[in-house]
């Protein structure tokens, strides 16, 4: 209690956590600091201010090369905002800052780290409207989704790991005669973190919260398509009073910034979320450099199975959410729907009616369920998959076309394919858009076989009222997250991650703490003689 009361005071905070001397040899020019000021952006009538610099050693600074890049507005396809573009030399500086701060941060009182994480959560609550506006403008998400899912998920994650900070203990053992031994859970060090564009705010927090709680420092790269919310959160990190260098953000591209982080000889751990192809590249980069510990959260092609005894209306609702959440741009989206032949026609009819009712439109328009896809590249990729489905002989049962608007933007009709065969591209590859396949099945064993016929293993769902079947089938599905009578529900307190080529390691829950700590064993001699 006393400690907490003292933490509230800035004066005493300094006493508890002495100011870290600045990184030796690291000095930003006044020009680099001045050109990285915040700029205003008007979003749906709301004026927000967003930093434009890289966030290194507690300051917003211009990139060493002075470059900037644009993020576009997916609702129009036009440039939205311009931010500093980092490169390898900026990563070098950020890693130096993170390494320097790590030496002090690792030994701080965990209560202090928890207080800072909670302070950041408070500031995110206070700035909720700005964060939602920024996230929706940059990604195309609807404010409804962002305010009920992305933002509360981020704040909940911060508070959850704040709670863990002072509960991470080792073991002691007196059981071995002649010794006393114990283990310590030490932070890993400087953590490189690379995140995708589909949940920029949530992924940023999923990454930094457990790393900081356990005493690590961070060099993080946002996705080039969606750099804005991370910059805003860094402003709040600064305001919360985190020591300079605890979190460093280098916005920029994968080939430059991402690759520099993955290959860096002084980055101890790499946490990556993104596609399986890039996941392989960063794992290889670790192998070719310093064997930094790598965790990977990758793609998916998740099955969603509806048995004949399921509550049909509810199964339709959850299966619709299984693809509608984030307009299909969700790693655990339920893209392969399998329906038992006895209810296939009825399910297809009800599901089609449900999908037809989805309102597609601009993110800030009233009542919109589905906004634009995130980028031109993603839009073209999804339309390419729809074409592949048609070319390979599947039937477009609903949708299948882009939606033209007078403002431009990347809108695609909710799309249902039927008559899909297991070898088809749309059945095997991650589409990452509002596209599902619906396939009829006869019996449990065959549907399990089809469901598992994928290189991915991120998620899977079963709809049935028979609990024995629910337990048996979820047990047989090779996926890291399984649902019964629901879909797309992920909570920060439950481990999340992939089987097979969907990833390595887990995020969320207690499980992720394993990734951000390493165990040190200490043996004390209590009278043992040296062997002769
Ligand atoms: P991506 O792999 O193209 O990019 C992810 C990140 O990696 C970006 O920041 C990118 O700049 C960076 N990057 C690209 N090339 C790199 C390289 N050579 N070295 C280092 N970094 C590099 O993925 P994306 O298109 O941004 O995101 C969509 C993918 O992410 C989908 O496959 C989706 O399933 C997956 N995803 C997975 C999870 C999960 O938790 N499993 C969550 C969200 C998204
Ligand atoms: Mn954008």
Automatic annotation (TrEMBL):
Keywords, in A-Z order: Oxidoreductase
Keyword set includes Oxidoreductase: yes
Catalytic activity: an aldehyde + NAD(+) + H2O = a carboxylate + NADH + 2 H(+)
Active site, renumbered: 297
Residues in Aldehyde dehydrogenase domain copies: 60-522
Domain of life: Eukaryota
EC numbers on record: 1.2.1.3
Matching PROSITE patterns: ALDEHYDE_DEHYDR_GLU
Gene3D superfamilies xrefs: Aldehyde Dehydrogenase, Chain A, domain 1 (3.40.605.10), Aldehyde Dehydrogenase, Chain A, domain 2 (3.40.309.10)
Presence of keyword Oxidoreductase: yes
Family, as annotated: Belongs to the aldehyde dehydrogenase family.
The protein's name in its UniProt record: aldehyde dehydrogenase (NAD(+))
């Amino acid at each position: 209690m006393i400690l907490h009361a003292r933490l509230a005071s800035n004066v005493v905070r300094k006493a508890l956590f002495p100011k870290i001397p600045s990184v030796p040899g690291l000095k930003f020019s006044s020009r680099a600091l001045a050109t990285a000021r915040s700029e205003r952006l008007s979003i749906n009538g709301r004026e927000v201010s967003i930093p434009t610099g890289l966030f290194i050693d507690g300051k917003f600074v211009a990139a060493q090369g002075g470059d900037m890049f644009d993020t576009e507005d997916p609702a129009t396809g036009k440039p939205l905002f311009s931010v500093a573009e980092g490169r390898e030399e900026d990563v070098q500086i950020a890693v130096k800052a993170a390494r320097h701060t790590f030496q002090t941060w690792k030994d701080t009182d965990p209560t202090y780290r928890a207080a800072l994480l909670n302070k950041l959560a408070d500031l995110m609550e206070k700035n909720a409207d700005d964060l939602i506006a920024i996230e929706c403008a940059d990604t195309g998400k609807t404010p409804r989704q962002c305010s009920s899912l992305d933002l509360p998920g981020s704040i909940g994650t911060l508070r959850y790991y704040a709670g863990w900070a002072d509960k991470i203990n080792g073991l002691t053992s007196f059981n071995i005669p002649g010794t006393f031994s114990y283990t310590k859970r030490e932070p890993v060090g400087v953590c490189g973190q690379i995140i995708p564009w589909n949940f920029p705010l949530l992924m940023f927090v999923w990454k930094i919260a457990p790393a900081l709680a356990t005493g690590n420092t961070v060099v993080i790269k946002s996705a080039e398509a969606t750099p804005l919310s991370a910059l805003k959160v860094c402003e709040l990190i600064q305001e919360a009073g985190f020591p300079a260098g605890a979190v460093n953000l280098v916005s920029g591209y994968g080939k430059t910034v991402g690759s520099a982080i993955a290959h860096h000889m002084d980055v101890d751990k790499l946490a990556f979320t993104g596609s399986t192809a890039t996941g392989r590249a960063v794992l290889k980069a670790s192998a070719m450099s310093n064997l930094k510990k790598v965790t990977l959260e990758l793609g998916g092609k998740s099955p969603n199975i509806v048995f004949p005894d399921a509550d049909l209306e509810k199964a339709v609702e959850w299966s619709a959410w299984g693809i509608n959440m984030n307009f299909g741009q969700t790693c655990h989206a339920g893209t392969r729907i399998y329906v038992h032949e006895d209810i296939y026609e009825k399910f297809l009819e009800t599901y089609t009616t449900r999908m037809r009712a989805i309102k597609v439109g601009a993110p800030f328009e009233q009542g919109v369920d589905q906004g634009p896809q995130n980028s031109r590249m993603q839009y073209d990729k999804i339309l390419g998959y729809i074409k592949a489905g048609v070319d390979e002989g599947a039937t477009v049962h609903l949708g299948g076309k882009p939606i033209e608007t007078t403002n431009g933007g990347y809108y695609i009709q909710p799309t249902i394919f039927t008559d899909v065969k297991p070898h088809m591209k749309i059945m095997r590859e991650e589409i990452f858009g509002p596209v599902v396949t619906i396939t009829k099945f006869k019996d449990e064993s065959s549907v399990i076989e089809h469901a598992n016929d994928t290189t991915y293993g991120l998620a899977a769902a079963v709809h049935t009222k028979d609990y024995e079947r629910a337990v048996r089938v979820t047990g047989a599905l090779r996926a890291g997250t399984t649902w019964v009578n629901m879909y797309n529900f992920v909570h920060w307190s439950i481990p999340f991650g992939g089987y097979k080529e969907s990833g390595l390691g887990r995020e969320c829950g207690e499980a992720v703490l394993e990734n951000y700590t390493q165990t040190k064993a200490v043996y004390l001699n209590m009278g043992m003689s040296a062997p002769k």
